[in-house]
Design goal:
Blueprint: H1 10-18, H2 27-38, H3 45-53, H4 57-66, E1 78-83, H5 86-90, H6 93-103, E2 109-110, E3 116-121, E4 133-135, E5 138-140, H7 145-160
Parallel strand pairs: 1-3
Antiparallel strand pairs: 1-4, 2-3, 4-5
Helix pairs in contact: 1-3, 2-3, 3-4
Residues 83, 85-88, 123-127, 130, 132 line the site of FE2/S2 (inorganic) cluster.
Length: 161
């Protein structure tokens, strides 16, 4: 499977950071921009970001460590983000998680074939249509295992296109 992200390099990272507006020259927006481009923020990026936004390496590392949405290693080609916040729980997200764990991978881990990461998130802004799942960038509401399987298959086709 082909990654939908650019290949990391320090030079490419600097180009991404150079495109940030003045208001985005802060640690978190800089780290988010790198993750958006490369799919993750390698430890090597900490010094580059710190220098770019003129803060300490320790502060930058602290932000990278604090937000669990920020990944420090490359993700699988497909990321299934399952909402487990209250409204989705009321609509069966716990049962959905159990099904996902049996058919794809446990939350917080990667499928055996390496193609899918399953992560837990807290609200995707789709509460009225819970349980909600994000499959890469596609939001799916009122999810059951069948519709999730179809969404993953579509994402797989897109990644392989
Ligand atoms: S609680 Fe799941 S989308 Fe808001």
């Amino acid at each position: 499977m082909v990654s939908r992200y650019s290949t990391w390099s320090a030079e490419a990272a600097q180009q991404v950071l150079d495109l940030l507006s003045e208001g985005e020259r802060l640690i978190l927006p800089a780290l988010q921009a790198l993750q958006h481009e490369f799919g993750y923020v390698p430890r090597e990026a900490v010094g580059i970001v710190a220098k770019h936004v003129n803060v300490s390496v320790a502060d930058t590392h602290g932000v990278l460590s604090f937000y669990h949405e920020l990944r420090t290693s490359p993700p699988a080609p497909i990321i299934v983000s399952v909402c487990v916040a209250e409204a989705c729980q009321a609509n069966g997200s716990r049962e959905l998680v159990t099904s996902i764990e049996q058919s794809i991978a446990p939350v917080g881990s990667r499928s055996a074939d390496g193609s899918v990461d399953v992560v837990e998130v807290f609200c995707l802004g789709n509460c009225a249509l819970g349980p909600a799942v994000l499959v890469n960038e596609r939001l799916v509401g009122r999810v059951n295992l069948d519709s999730l399987t179809r969404a993953v298959a579509t994402a797989r086709d897109e990644v392989n296109a």
